[in-house]
Amino acid sequence: MSKQTKPGKQMIQKIMSILFLLFLMGMVVFNMVKKDQGFSENENRMLASKPKITLSGLTSGRYMKQYEAYKSDQFAGRDVWVQTKTRADKLSGKKEENGVFQGKEHYLMEDIVTPVLETMKENLEAMKTFQKKYKDIPMNVLLVPDAANIMKDKLPAFAVTADQSKQIKEVKNVLGDGFIWNDAQKPLKANQKEDIYYHTDHHWTTQGAYEVFQSMTKSLGIDKNRLVKMKPYAVSDSFQGTLSATSGFESHYQEPIYIYLPVDEPAEVLVNYVEEREKTVSMYDSDKLKEKDQYGMFLNGNHPLVSIKTTSPSSERILVIKDSYANCFIPFLTPYYREVMVVDPRYYYGDIHKLMEEHHFNRVLFLYNANTFFGDNNLSGVLASDSNETK
Amino acid sequence: MVFSSIIFLFTFLPVMLLLYYVVPKQFRNIIMLLCSLVFYAWGEPVYVFLMVFSILFNYISGLDISRKLSNKNMARQSLIFTIVVNIGILGFFKYYGFLLENINAILPFHIPYRELALPIGISFYTFQTLSYIIDVYRGHVAVQKNIISFGVYVSMFPQLIAGPIVRYADIEKQLRTRTESWNKFGNGVLFFIRGLAKKVLLANAIGMVFTKVTGLSGGEMSVTSAWLGCFAYFFQIYFDFSGYSDMAIGLGRMFGFEFLKNFDYPYIAKSITDFWRRWHISLGTWFREYVYIPLGGNRVSVAKNIRNIFVVWFLTGMWHGASWNFIVWGLYYGAILLLEKFVLKNILEKMPNILKHIYSILLIMIGWVFFFSPDLGGAVHYLGIMFGAGKHVFIDSQAVYLLGTNWLLWITLVLCSTPLVFQWGERFLYQRQKPRVVVGCVVYGALLLLCVAYLVTETYNPFLYFRF
Questions:
Q1: A239: which strand partners?
Q2: Looking at the predicted structure, is the pLDDT value of residue B461 above 90?
Q3: pTM
Q4: Catalytic entry in B110, B140, B320, B392
């Protein structure tokens, strides 16, 4: 550093000194003045609050980690900084972020999950044992593939994903003839030019669900003469899904949510959220449309156990064991079943065998999205709860 | 605490700068010492006391040895005692587990042990205290009677966690008198921003590619993917480490200190000998000064010279980590250096430059495989895939994807590994009649803002299902 520094460099150094200090001090002041935020709409979670100082927290280093998280979460202009980063990423051509692909035509697609073999084996064995126990009750399995599988042509160039078609086929083979297998790939592929998946969310659209429903009415035992005509109605045009939140891509893209209602008189329903002890008369919760996760308006999101009683002329009862994909599918079932009972194994801690005994279901439907199914580790536990088990 | 974090940039650093420049000059060392202890304690709330002990112990030893300098034997005894204590502490925390593991492998019974957490920076500050003690003994430096100044030398936060390893002789005068100026400060800011950008924008980005490749199961890895993974690490470790060193030098300058550079574009080396004059320079210098030369260096018989080189490289490998693959890594380089010195010298000189570069980069990449693999077996396996062992496809769509989607990043990494970018930048900005001051400030400012955006996003963690 003993060379004579060029005057141009000296100028830049002096100016950058001042700018750097101004920037640091500016952000410090900004942060001091800004009030701490609680819930973040964009991230759909509570932001860290100022941690309390405790001796054990200090000696273990936990306090320091909490304080760092607090300072980061509450950093002034956080959302703007995050947007800047994603814009810079896009400029550099990045097409994948946090497991989400930026596809063509504004489609965001979740990467295909590779199943953990151990847990998947357990789940499939549990399903087979369950079916054998209730072998007089027909059981349908609907495993819905993800957008990255159906709309391969929309993935970014060179993108490589695991083969979900192969994975789904293996599940079909392992489950065997005891189950009524429903193929969702065919109707979805046939309609892939339509909006069958959301652009910014990992769920299928109501239209996608309806196409698949229509392809399987026979296997659900529904008489084609009794099929109810349904029409789509838009309930929102400002939906921004989870994929755009995770990846930061398409943060300004808004899309519609449709519900399908019978053209003629609607079947009336009584929806009972059993564990929460709440009852409503609609399967749609319009309050949720004011929140960020608007998909939650279908059946008010995910609940452990929901009992839906209808005024359908049918006397059949169906049990649906599912993940969130079923939430927009279930309204298609209500015209044809007197009772639709919905179990989400991720939150259900009850005894499913007691449920089976008490309600005398005519049919069971397993409805899962493939990625969720292959990442699931709750199903076997719920199905296996045996009366012999000591709690 | 790490430099590339929100808490450092917007809480610690502003407070530190304010305190340091507000107090009168004679108190600046105290401020530096206290704040550095806080900086260290933030990451090591318990082991900060170990470092304080090391400061006190070495301070007293320094006084002790300097008092005994007239009596060489007594001084030597004190020196050996001090060295043993320092290395004992380092050895205990760093190598205890490794030692027992290997003893257990040989013994018929098993000695149980608990893995100790390694105190951050202990390898760095121990080498600094050793450099001080040995130089006092040799009479190269005057003993430091001011405990504050000595404490600053050992613990000052810019170089505490990840170097450069500062020799006491290089900084002795600066502890007493150093000049701070807008120019120096600004130079530090530029260094800091460059280092931050290297770490946050380059190293972290290519690190994700590396993670992706090492996450592939054996069956899914093509030969090209294996090479891409190795290249990814090759760049990641360089930009991470040299970025951190740049930040350390930059921060030092902001407080008036001048550290020597730690990296000199190592990847444009024309031989492995050349590479080690450009990579982690402060470590190489330390080993040369305090191990190689005391052992006789190259002023001894050829046999002893070879022994000296092997000792240095064995220790260099061990310094990097308590595991056999690091030791193999060190010895690997020791062997190559010996070959270059005694066997390949003439051949290398006559090779065209392009071959020299390919030769060097190839050997460096192979070395990194030993470095990043979890163990020796893993390293051999990975190298096997790279060189065609086993039934691995040469190239697959995964490899094309990793290469294609990151094309801009790969090009940037290659260019920034050479002096071209920096030289061109300097020419473009300063070496003209009318220097492009505005452009320069805009570029540096934009880099800083972009890095902050990336740091904020690191904790961006959306929860996908409804809140509980």
A1: A255
A2: no
A3: 0.83
A4: B320
